[in-house]
Amino acid sequence: MTSSTRTETKIDSVDSATLQSWIDTGDDLIVLDVRSGAEFENMHIRGSYNVPLPLLSEHADELAERLGRQTVLVCQSGTRAEQARQRLSGAGVETAHVLTGGVPAYAAAGGDVVRGAQRWDLERQVRLVAGSLVLTGMAGGKFLSPKFRALAGAIGAGLTFSAATNTCAMGNALAAMPWNRTADEPTHEAAILQLPSRAPETSPESQEPAS
Q1: Do residues 76 and 102 touch, judged by C-beta distance below 8 A?
Q2: Does 176 or 14 have the greater pLDDT score?
Q3: How confident is the model at residue 72 (pLDDT cuts 50, 70, 90)?
Q4: Which residues are bridge partners to 79 per DSSP?
Q5: Enclosing H/E stretch for 70
Q6: At residue 182, does pLDDT exceed 50?
Q7: Distance between CA atoms of 99 and 182, rounded to whole angstroms?
Q8: Which end of the chain is more exposed for a tag (fewer CB within 10 A), N or C?
């Protein structure tokens, strides 16, 4: 469900226009980009923080201690951001939302983005590798040995499992490849400490004027 204004109703996703309005208001908002460092370098929302999904998943409890009232999770299409939302929800964060359509949709809507070195995004790489393996299995099964058809079946089963569990083992493997890693790939310390500390809540007693 997408909301154009902030309400007390729990929402799981926001569109680009809503995020732009939230950023413009300057309220307590953190935008977390859960893509790889290379994808972040390629293009990211200005002011967002890069915390790749594997790091976020491993340190969700630690991140939860630093997140403020509103958190928007972004990736290339929304799939990894939704996985991140589920991880953070398990750590007690109930104010995290997913940007519908990811960073490309935000840029297409006129949002302020920073562009850098151009690379294929991870999800496009997954489609290329999966499609290539399926074609290899079909061609090998026809011209070399029927056993090659098992490769196409394995890829199909893997993609089905990926959709059912909302995970992507191939994407995680590709993220670790040299061409998807940069010198600025976030470390645990950098990914956590770069986030602003959560402002302490003010108790009613501390708001009373001194007598």
Answers
A1: yes
A2: 14
A3: very high
A4: none
A5: strand 70-74
A6: yes
A7: 25
A8: C
